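ok so heres the complex, two chains, lmk if somethin looks off
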Amino acid sequence: MATTPEDPAAAIAAVIGLRRLADRMEREAVERAVDEGWTWQQIAQALGVTRQAAHKRHAARLRDRGRRTEDNR
Amino acid sequence: MNPMKMLDDMRTIKQLLTDAERIAREMGEEEPGAEHLLLSAIDLPDGSAGRALASMGVDADGIRAALRDEQADALVAAGLPRETAATMADPTPLGPAGTPLLYGAGPTARDVFQEAGRLARSSKQRLAGAHVVIAIAGLERGTMPRVLDRLGVDRQQLADAGRAELAAR
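and the predicted structre for the whole thing:
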């Protein structure tokens, strides 16, 4: 890995870039997990967040896509 | 307050925020940022944002390309190989939001929106795209100023171009 850029503006821009990428990877991974039948409890555990947090972050989007996201499978 | 102006402004605000939200999602972002507000302002029927930017040699496609470059370079700076970074910087659309959102704009987009409204009120003008352009030009840090730098746009000159558009209305 490269070291953090010395210029704080460049370093923060790198953080923003990584955050965007991480958000995108999280969305895609959670979608696949739901498709494979993971429960929200399992997804939350894997992400290291509460079940409520995982649900809040992802459930509405997945519902909008017409996927099956029943809470307690 | 002139009721016609108020009605006009409400229509402008609705379009500005709804489109910013749609553009953000098309670009794979859940929360509109200042850049999405600017792209939305360019699409407003008054046309002043697009003209102000055009006078600086910039259009919506150029801004979108610079945003992609900014994201790719950020990932390279973070240590990703250039080729991977370029692929990862390609936006993946999120699809339309099915649930009505209460304009969940990010804090910078909120600041820009509020500043644009304040500028319009203080000059007793109808809210126009150029107000958003001036507010964007006032940002000192973050994605938008970096993207303007990339495009070779001086922020002071951009603000002047925005004000010239408003004066010509």
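quick notes: Chain B has one domain: 3-90+104-167. thats all i got rn
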